[in-house]
Design goal:
The structure is a homodimer. With about 220 residues, chain A is α/β, with parallel strands linked by helices. The first copy, chain A, has a single domain, classed as 3-Layer(aba) Sandwich (Rossmann fold). Helix content of chain A is about 35%, strand content about 15%. The first copy, chain A, is built from 8 helices and 11 strands. In chain A, the strands form 3 sheets. The first copy, chain A, has a 7-stranded mixed sheet, with helices on both faces. In chain A, helix 1 packs across helix 8. The first copy, chain A, is globular. At the A-B interface, helix 1, helix 2 and helix 8 of A face helix 1, helix 2 and helix 8 of B.
Chain lengths: ~220, ~220
C-alpha cells in the first residue's frame, strides 16, 4: 500500500476562536498510527476575533490564523494558498470554533453565513477530483454550506442540526466515535467535542475518521 | 484501585514560548487511557515573550501564561496559586520552551537560571510529601535546578546534558519513549521532542511516564 498523504486544514489554535487543539493533535496521531503522513495548512488571514480561553470573553487583540495554527503544527505549516490537490490523497478539517468563525461566519450569522473563498475553493475542487474529506466536530456545518444536500453528523445538538437542514443538508444523530459517510461527496464526519466528550472519545473519533478516509481513498 | 488524580502544570500554549501542545494533549490522553483524572494548572503571570511559530521570530506582544494555557485545557484550568498537594496523587510537567522561559530562565541564562517562586514551591513541597513527579522534554532542566543531585534524561542533546551536570544533576542518555527514574525524588523523565521525534513516539513517552507515575504512587 502506498503511504497515504493527508492535508490537515487548521483554523487557528484554541477551541473558542481557532482549531480545537485535542482534535487537531489526535488527528495527527491517528494518521501516524495508520502509517500515513500529514502536512498542515491554514489561511493567512486575520482571526474573526480573539477569545480569552480562561474567561470566554473577547480580548482587544488581533491574531493571524496561520501564525496561531503554527503553534499546533510546531512551525511545520504552509499557507492554504500553497495547497495543491496533486500532493495529497485526502483532507481533514479538525473542529473548533475557528471553523465557524474564520472559515465561515456560521458562529455569527447561522445558516446564511458566508464562506472564506480560499477554503471554499479547496473543498469544491477536492470533491470534484474525488479526494475524500474528513470533517470533525463543527466542521460539517462548513461542508453543509458549501456542498448541496450533504449527509453529515455533528452529534445531537438540535439547533446546529436544524441549521444544517436549513442549508439543505441531512443531519444524522450519532454517539461518540461514530461516523457518517456521504458516499457521493466522499465526506466523513464525526461529532468529537460537539458532544460532551472525554479526550479518549476524541481519539476514537479521529481513529475512525482516518480509517474511513483511507478506505474511501482505496475504493474509489 | 483508587482513581489516580494527576495535576498537569502548563507553561503556556506552543512549543517555542509555552507548553508543547502535543506533549500536553498526549499526557491527558495517556492519563485518561490509564483510568486517571487530571486538572490543569498554570501560573498567572506574563510570558517571557511571544514567538511567531511560523517564523521563529519574537512578536511585539504580551501574553499571559494561564490565559494561553487555557487553550490547551479548553478553559478547564486553575491558577497555580490554587494548587493543593492534598488534592492530587502526582504531578506532570509537559515540555516546551515555556518551561525554560516562563518557569525558569534556563533558555536565556543556562545553568545559572532563576526559577519561578511558585513553581519551585510546588516541586519542593511535592517531593517533601512523596508525590511522584513526571517531567517531559526540557522540563528535567527545571528539576535539576530545583532538586540537588537529581538523575534525569533529556535524550541525548550534549549541551543540555552538560548544563544538567553543571547544576549538580546526572544525565542519562535515552532513546524515544525511554524513561529515567530517580527513586529518591520519585521523579520520572523522558525526552519526547528533545529528540527528533514523531508524534507516535511522543504518545509512547507519555504512556510510559503515566505508567511509571502510577507504579510509584502505589509503591511508596
Amino acid at each position: 500500500m502506498k503511504t497515504k498523504k493527508f492535508a490537515i486544514i487548521l483554523s487557528g489554535s484554541g477551541v473558542f476562536d481557532g482549531a480545537e487543539i485535542h482534535e487537531s493533535t489526535l488527528t495527527m496521531l491517528s494518521i501516524a498510527k495508520a502509517g500515513g503522513t500529514y502536512q498542515c495548512f491554514a489561511p493567512d488571514k486575520e482571526q474573526a476575533h480573539v477569545i480569552n480561553h480562561l474567561t470566554g470573553e473577547e480580548m482587544p487583540e488581533k491574531r493571524n490564523v496561520l501564525i496561531e495554527a503554527a503553534r499546533i503544527a510546531r512551525g511545520n505549516i504552509k499557507p492554504l494558498s500553497e495547497f495543491s490537490l496533486d500532493d495529497f490523497d485526502m483532507i481533514v478539517f479538525p473542529g473548533g470554533f475557528g471553523v465557524a468563525k474564520n472559515f465561515c461566519s456560521f458562529a455569527f450569522e447561522g445558516p446564511d453565513c458566508e464562506v472564506d473563498q480560499e477554503v471554499e475553493t479547496v473543498v469544491k475542487s477536492a470533491v470534484e477530483k474525488g479526494l475524500p474529506i474528513g470533517a470533525l466536530c463543527i466542521s460539517p456545518v462548513l461542508m453543509a454550506r458549501i456542498l448541496p444536500a450533504v449527509d453529515v453528523t455533528i452529534g445531537e445538538d438540535q439547533e446546529t442540526a436544524e441549521a444544517i437542514s436549513t442549508m439543505g443538508g441531512s443531519h444524522y444523530i450519532t454517539d461518540h466515535g461514530e461516523v457518517i459517510i456521504d458516499e457521493k461527496y466522499k465526506l466523513v464526519t464525526t461529532p468529537c467535542y460537539m458532544l460532551d466528550a472525554t479526550i479518549q472519545q476524541i481519539a476514537e473519533g479521529t481513529d475512525n475518521i482516518v480509517k474511513e478516509l483511507i478506505y474511501l481513498s482505496e475504493n474509489p
